[in-house]
Write a structure and sequence with these properties.
- This protein folds into two domains: about 15-130, no CATH class; about 140-165 and about 175-265, no CATH class.
- The protein is built from ten helices and seven strands.
- The chain has helices at about 15-20, 25-40, 40-45, 60-70, 75-85, 90-95, 105-115, 120-130, 230-250, 265; strands at about 140-150, 160, 185, 195, 205-215, 220-225, 255.
- The strands form two sheets. Strands 1, 4, 5, 6 and 7 form a five-stranded mixed sheet that branches. Strands 2-3 form a two-stranded antiparallel ribbon.
Length: about 270
């Protein structure tokens, strides 16, 4: 029999968000681990805030929201706030009830900067990766490193001469012009760089993202973002792998792509890797 269609004008529910999340959903286990680590960081959080004034975005919820942003590839914090407002799974993970107001993106960003400047991000990830239930998943000997381009939110039209010469059209007609990072910069994202992934490919305004994966389960153990340059991938690789070697207390093995197969790069690792 055909069901009756009826528009729902409001939300009145006696079922908790926790009951709506499947018992086997992978975020459940992650949420429990994150909560344990956040309890350990309570003192570090307390030192970052004054005893008076308006309440900030709770750091525990802020870190949870940033994890959701990474897990699901949400492109901006404006979109993250939008998703938290109507996605029950995301708000449940962060610790928001369906009736809680979602933060303004600017407020969220300012509070994120506070945690970043207080080095809470690093403490949080170190404790999470070293959690007794997480650490056994990682190999401490065999790793792979790779990089990828992260396209900047800046158009080609914004890539204009630094001295302002030859920019009468506002950057609209750049075809046929010789443009380099030495002489040009984006007016909307000055830190981005014009970069071509390979010969014959289109040059884009971008950054480079770098990740170190352990080879046992393919889990990321380190990452960083740099400006897009011809040596960025090798420099980031050296920094991350030397940190892993130091943490392991001995030699490690590492796999990288062909762009890292240079004599200087290999020599910089001997004899630690």
């Amino acid at each position: 029999m055909r069901g009756t269609f009826q528009d729902q004008g409001g939300l009145v529910s006696y079922i908790s968000p926790d009951a709506r999340v499947p018992t086997n959903h992978p975020l459940r286990k992650i949420r429990d681990l994150v909560r344990e680590v956040l309890v350990e960081l309570n003192r570090s959080f307390g030192r970052l805030y004054a005893s008076e004034g308006r309440p900030s975005v709770p750091p525990e919820q802020l870190l949870g929201a940033l994890l959701i942003e990474v897990f699901y590839g949400i492109r901006s914090e404006g979109q993250l706030m939008e998703q938290l407002d109507y996605n029950l799974l995301y708000s449940w993970f962060v610790g928001l009830s369906p009736d809680d107001p979602v933060w303004d993106p600017t407020t969220f960003t300012k509070n994120r900067d506070r945690l970043q400047n207080g080095e809470v991000f690093a403490k949080f990830m170190i404790r999470l990766l070293n959690h007794p239930q997480v650490k056994p998943l990682f190999s401490d000997e065999h790793f792979s490193v790779d990089g990828t381009l992260i396209e900047a939110w800046a158009s080609q039209k914004s890539f204009r001469p630094k001295d302002g010469n030859g920019d009468d059209d506002g950057g609209a007609n750049f075809h046929g012009q010789k443009r380099k990072n030495d002489t040009h910069a984006s007016s909307t994202d000055p830190d981005s760089r014009l970069y071509r992934k390979a010969a014959g490919r289109e040059a884009k305004l971008c950054y480079m993202g770098h990740a170190t994966m352990e080879n046992r389960n393919g889990l990321a153990v380190a990452g960083m973002v740099t400006q897009a340059t011809g040596t960025a991938e090798r420099c980031a690789s050296e920094k991350m792998l030397k940190a892993r070697s130091k943490a392991a207390g001995g030699r490690i093995t590492a796999g990288e792509d062909k762009a890292c197969d240079t004599a200087n790069h290999v020599a910089n690792f001997e004899p630690s890797t």
